[in-house]
């Protein structure tokens, strides 16, 4: 039997694929038509659960090439020598939209990278913005619910969005980015990426440093106007996905400069902002960018579902020399992301080819839905049969922690306005006008008490910021 013969999933040849087995020409279908039953049963299960966020995405394979020695900061082998190349898979996405939503919606963009290092998978699961709307993971579900569809009506309602933000001034920095010209990137090639969170490096001496990851587009930054984005949403809703795929097919391989900011461990105690607050950035004057390498995308997936849809990222995928930090949102994501992948793809999701490490894997996990021999040694440790054992040489140095266990108010004494105001003042007059017009446009029809509560926040960022929005809404102070 050759490969052109149609078979069932069990490999049995199929004699008839055009007509169901029935009792007579007009009779009912027989359950013994096992080929029909298999086709219908599989069809019912073709869709895995959609991601709650980042549902719509595009991806490609590529390579990270190291251009600078940073062994003084980290022992991670991915950075071990200049010229070293590490294969990777990068998935771009919109955040709030569903699987069939348009690529050109005003929304942050996911920028998730899976590095297949010799020490295992290292995932940088970030966005195209250096900050986020929240700093505490307990608020993440509430924030996302406010952006999603109204549970009563089934459609999106801006009142819910602005009502939430009126009580969440920590979101102002990200909101200023979202509603600015930067809010609608012109595809995925013309935007930056960020790890956003603070991570840690540690070197061969066990010295720790705090670090932020930046990916600067070599194509430059290009954004869409709201009018153009709306036009494309109707004429080409897969615009960004198509642009990325076709550029790589043309061998116009997009590249990003991989840069880091490095903060000595002791500086965190005295820095002017909490360096572990996801709503804040570190000044580039205080901690300048250090260029580490070049990231290039040069190969398209062969199957969208198998590779892009089943790609599973988690910030908990860290390799020796790269660690977490006290960033509260990061701490929450260390659990939430792999938990989401187990729900979507099963407990053995890291065995799916796109997620599988390139280096040998030694572990005692067994069973579940398997795609391999399920292990060729017993499933407990310690043991007497030479199974894999721990390696103390990759131990992370101790993390300094102080303070009592409590539920601390992150708003108390925290300045949620200055960085958003600083960003507003960086914009040109024309950019400020477009920013405030977009915000005012989304506020139309929102109850006046909610509008005024939000205006008070914008005024604290910069008096002009709030005034311009109010004027465009016809509100006189």
From TrEMBL:
Q: Which GO terms describe its biological process?
A: hydrogen peroxide catabolic process; response to hydrogen peroxide
Where does the record place the catalytic residues?
Answer: 54, 127
The EC number(s) given in the record are 1.11.1.6
| Gene Ontology terms, MF aspect | catalase activity; heme binding; metal ion binding
Q: Which GO terms describe its cellular component?
A: cytoplasm
| CDD domains per UniProt | catalase_clade_3
Record Pfam families: Catalase, Catalase-rel
Name it: Catalase
């Amino acid at each position: 039997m050759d490969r052109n013969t149609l078979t069932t999933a069990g490999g049995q040849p199929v004699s008839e694929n055009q007509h169901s087995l029935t009792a007579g020409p007009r009779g009912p279908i027989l359950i013994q038509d096992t080929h029909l039953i298999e086709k219908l049963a599989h069809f019912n299960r073709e869709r895995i659960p959609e991601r709650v966020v980042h549902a719509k995405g595009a991806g490609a394979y590529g390579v990270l090439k190291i251009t600078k020695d940073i062994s003084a900061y980290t022992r991670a082998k991915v950075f071990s020598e200049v010229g070293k190349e590490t294969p990777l898979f990068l998935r771009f996405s919109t955040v709030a939209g569903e699987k069939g939503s348009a690529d050109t919606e005003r929304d942050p963009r996911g920028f998730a990278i899976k590095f297949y290092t010799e020490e295992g998978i290292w995932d940088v699961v970030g966005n195209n913005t250096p900050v986020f709307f929240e700093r505490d993971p307990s608020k993440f579900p509430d924030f996302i619910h406010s952006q999603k569809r109204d549970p009563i009506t089934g459609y999106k309602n801006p009142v819910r969005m602005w009502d939430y933000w009126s009580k969440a001034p920590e979101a102002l920095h990200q909101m200023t980015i979202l509603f600015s010209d930067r809010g609608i990137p012109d595809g995925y090639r013309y935007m930056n990426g960020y790890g956003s969170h603070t991570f840690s490096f540690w070197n061969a001496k066990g010295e720790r440093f705090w670090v932020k990851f930046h990916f600067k587009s070599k194509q430059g930054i290009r954004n869409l106007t709201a009018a153009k984005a709306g036009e494309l949403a109707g004429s080409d809703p897969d615009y960004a996905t198509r642009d990325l795929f076709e550029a790589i097919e043309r061998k116009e391989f997009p590249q990003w400069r991989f840069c880091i900011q490095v903060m000595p461990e002791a500086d965190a105690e005295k820095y002017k902002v909490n360096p572990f607050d996801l709503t804040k950035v570190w000044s580039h004057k205080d901690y300048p960018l250090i260029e580490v390498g070049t990231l290039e995308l040069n190969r398209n997936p062969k199957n969208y579902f198998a590779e892009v849809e089943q790609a599973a990222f988690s910030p908990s995928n860290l390799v020796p020399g790269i660690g977490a930090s006290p960033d509260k949102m990061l701490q929450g994501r260390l659990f939430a992301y792999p938990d989401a992948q187990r729900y979507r793809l099963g407990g053995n999701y890291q065995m799916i080819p796109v997620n599988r490490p390139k280096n040998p894997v030694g572990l005692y996990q067994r069973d579940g839905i398997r795609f391999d021999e399920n292990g060729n040694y017993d499933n407990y440790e310690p043991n007497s049969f030479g199974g894999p054992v721990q390696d103390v040489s990759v131990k992370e140095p101790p993390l300094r922690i102080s303070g009592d266990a409590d539920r601390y108010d992150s708003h108390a004494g925290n300045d949620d306005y200055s960085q958003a105001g600083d960003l507003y003042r960086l914009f040109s007059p024309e950019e400020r006008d477009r920013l405030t017009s977009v915000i005012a446009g989304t506020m139309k029809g929102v109850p006046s008490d909610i509008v005024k509560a939000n205006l008070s926040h914008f005024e604290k960022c910069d008096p002009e910021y709030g005034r311009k929005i109010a004027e465009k809404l016809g509100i006189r102070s």
